[in-house]
Amino acid sequence: MTILKSDLCNFGLKFASFGTYVSKQTEFITNFVKNFKPMKKVALLFVAVLFATVTFAQSDLPIDPKTEKICFRKVINTVGSQDDVFNRIFSQFLNTYYKSPSTILQQNDGRTLKGKHQFQLDNGDPVKSKWPWVTYYFTIEVREGRVRYTLTDFMQKTQSSHPCEEWMNKEDPLYNPIWGSYLNQIAAFAEDWGQQFEKSLIPEKVIEEEEW
After folding, report:
1. Of 18, 44, 165, 176, whose Cβ has the fewest other Cβ atoms within 10 Å?
2. Phi, psi (rounded to 5 degrees) for 159
3. What does the DSSP assignment read for 114-136?
4. pLDDT tens-digit map of 79-127
5. Are 147 and 78 in contact (CB under 8 A)?
6. The domain 71-200 is classified under which CATH number: 3.30.530.80, 1.10.150.20, 3.30.428.10, 1.10.510.10?
7. Whole-angstrom Cα distance, residue 182 to residue 194?
8. pLDDT tens digits along 8-62
9. Are the beta carbons of 68 and 169 closer than 8 angstroms?
């Protein structure tokens, strides 16, 4: 069997889908490896990564046992007084991460910040305006020596909103393999949000002016 360049391109593209599509890709890779031995290790690595990604998307997203909703929550130790930390969060995170934090905040009492925002998910369409939107709520609670953030209530922004937890149901008659990719993107978004937030908690260095 002869492997053409076009076959190799198709091989890469076939890994764009997730979920139930994995079994078909496994069969494809098996046949590919048999006929193109130099790529055997690479192909097997792709399979391992693919299965790990699908498993993470489908079963490892954090679920709040009380609300049964996807929920990313973390407690972080802080340096400085509550007022200093609160002001630092506002100036170094909210004012930089969001274009207009005052329009998305629903609560700001000096100790707790609650807001609602949205982001897009990549569905592979070359026209970005066709990518789906997801809304979410964030809560930041400041206590003495620690801060807790929560990201939850992820909703599909359509004519009638639907919880993103629906994408985890592989028994749904309308199940689409791309739902696994959407869940992965939500997890990646939450991870980036958390990293940016933690960076904002680091006190700025005070530069002492040199005496003349």
Report:
1. 44
2. -60, -35
3. EEEEEEE---S-SSGGGS-EEEE
4. 999 999 999 999 999 999 999 999 999 999 989 999 999 999 999 999 9
5. yes
6. 3.30.530.80
7. 18
8. 333 343 333 334 444 444 454 445 445 544 444 444 334 433 443 443 334 479 9
9. no
